[in-house]
Amino acid sequence: MAVLKVVNYGEPVLRKEAEKVTKVSSKIQKLVADMFDTMYAYDGCGLAAPQVGELKRIFVLDCGTDENPLPQMVFINPVIIKKDGAIISREGCLSFPGVYTDVKRYQSVTVRYMDLKGKTQTMTVQEGTLLCRAIQHEMDHLNGVLFVDHVIDRFSTDQQLAEHKLPPIEPDKILTEPDLDEALAGVAL
Ligand code: ZN
Fold first, then answer.
1. What is the pLDDT of residues 140-177, one digit of tens each?
2. Pairing of strands 58-61, 73-84
3. pLDDT at 35 over 80
4. Which helix or strand (DSSP H or E) is residue 89 part of?
5. Terminus of the chain with fewer CB atoms < 10 Å: N or C?
6. Where are the chain's structural domains?
7. Is residue 188 very low, low, confident or very high in pLDDT (cuts 50, 70, 90)?
8. 3-state secondary structure at position 100
9. Which of 17, 54, 127, 138 is catalytic?
10. Which helix (H) or strand (E) element contains residue 141?
11. How far apart are the CA of 147 and the centre of ligand 1, in A?
12. Ligand 1 center to residue 46 CA distance, Å?
């Protein structure tokens, strides 16, 4: 087991699409163990393989808190098969040290994935919990999408990025999210 280097925003690998895992080999199991070591060493609650330079469709999560402990979770070849509602989520990312900003996310998602034993699992998470938001954040990493692509306040986020010596938001990467905008407008005051 080992702590791997987490790549920062600006590294091209974070913009690439990760490849499907065809077999949960001992090499993949070792990568997953190293990803957990790395995530804990960096004090994060989620980490996707591209963040350690591995273009594989894998992410790990530990979204437990003292009040609500959750097991370690491994998602291999995940697919979001259902999504509903919208929320504003304040997020950070281990590849953006020190940067936190509000982004748009679905309020509930159903994800289908393979576990570390190679078994297909389906999980539904609701109410915009940390787990629900983390699944969407990490899922994005596998498609070269980053949380700042969902940004709400581009100006203040760019200021934070500059303060932390990270590149600015890439305007052509900002997502148009009409379904989320519509859902958010529905709950606005
Ligand atoms: Zn991230």
1. 999 999 999 999 999 999 999 999 999 999 999 999 99
2. antiparallel
3. yes
4. strand 87-91
5. C
6. 12-184
7. low
8. coil
9. 138
10. helix 130-141
11. 7
12. 7
Counting DSSP H helices and E strands in the chain, the numbers are: 4, 7
Does the annotation count 138 as an active-site position? Answer: yes
Compute, in degrees rounded to 10, the torsion defined by CA atoms 114, 3, 56, 16: 140
- Ligand 1 centroid to 122 CA: how many Å? 22
19 and 56 in contact (C-beta within 8 Å)?
yes
For domain 12-184, the CATH class is alpha beta
Q: What would the pLDDT profile of 43-68 be if each residue is shown by its tens digit?
A: 999 999 999 999 999 999 999 888 88
> Ligand 1 center to residue 45 CA distance, Å?
10
Structure tokens that stand for 160 in this block: 């934070």
Distance 50 CA to ligand 1 centre (A): 10
> 152: which residues sit within 8 A by CB, 6+ positions away?
88, 101, 102, 103, 104
- What is the token pair recorded at 122? 């389906």
Helix (H, G, I), strand (E, B) or coil at 179: helix
- φ/ψ of 184, rounded to 5, equals -70, -40
Query: Tokens standing for 130?
Result: 């940390």
